[in-house]
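Hi support team,

I submitted a single chain yesterday and got back a structure, but I'm not sure I'm reading the token output correctly. Could someone confirm the output below corresponds to the sequence I sent? I've pasted both exactly as they appear in my results page.

Thanks,
R.
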Amino acid sequence: MAQPKKRVAVIYGSRSVEHDVSIITAQQVMAALDKNKYDVTPIYITRKGSWYTHPSLFTGSPTTDIQYHNKLIEVDYSDSAIALPPDPQIHGLLSPAITGLLGRTKVLPIDVAVPVVHGTYGEDGTLQGVLEMADIPYVGSGVVGSAVGMDKIMTKAVLQAHGIAAVAFTWFTRREWEQHPAAVLERVQREVGLPAFVKPANLGSSIGISKATNTEQLRDAIEVAQSYDSRILVERAVEQVMEINCAVMGNYEPFASVCEQPVSWNEFLNFDDKYLQSGDMSGMKGAQRRIPAPISDDLTRQIQTMAVTAFRAMGCFGLARVDFLVDQRDNTVYLNEFNTTPGSFSFYLWSASGLRPVEVMDRLLELALEAHAEKRKTTFVYKSSVLDSSVLALGSGKSGLKK
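Hi R., thanks for writing in. Yes, this is the structure output for that exact sequence:
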């Protein structure tokens, strides 16, 4: 007897500066889901935060799909509006989200969700929190791993605690910069020096990142970064550096993919390098890259080991892409950034490792269900008599509670 298809919801878009990249990744993810095994429900979140679903969201070619989304962004498709209530008894979507006096709301059940929201309100643990409350299994890291991986400052703290090398850095808040700019500039140059990279603490796709080689450039770079986040990270720029990335997959026994070397005309991969260089809509695959990376076997193993160690230390699940910097003068390896929802789900790295995109998605959905089953072993309810005794005490004018 044939197994019923899993009902898979792919969630993408949202209130993020990486909104458009999320749409591209969602295309690739949905194309990689085996339609013989899964009934796919696309869930598109607009730039304003409204949730929609519609069977025609992905029906044509990549070009026409993108054109459809461009129209959808501007129009209120209220008949397709949905909501994901954080109620474990519902375990699905409400459609439509709001009904009139005579309307009826239907429940669209979900077996497993695939969050494909890059950046804020998705990759940062917020969407994962809603799915946790709704008791819906989902692909990727949980609230903690997602939040830590998204926050570059917290990532540095975890790396330091586990002895994983990272470049010298400092950080400060937008308020500090607004109130004491001269002191911030002095501290950055004293603790990190120039040249340096200035980054918003919580963003991806190289948005808001600038390199500064003098004080004036540093001031301008901070102004850019602080417009994207309230906390700013400044890292020492490693000279003669080579960027090497690899992906990680798994829950309790994670493993790493082959390594790649992104190739760019710039000193670091900016947004255009990552997504627009090839002129197509293939996402991260559009950037020029060398796979496998032209490095020694020993260095490859070192980077893969560091990636897996960091993945476990940060409490990650499912998948991630880990970006490294290699100082070519002495082959010192620094973990640079962590991506718990990588562009294109790093299909290109897994393909080079022998896994087709359809196999990657099968495995990720299995990992999502495995992680969810493990959570269900945990006790979440504990019934005590504290409320009974408190009510009795309140009736006599005493709280009955000790602080």
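A quick pointer for reading it: The longest helix spans residues 357-375. Let us know if anything else looks off.

Best,
Support desk
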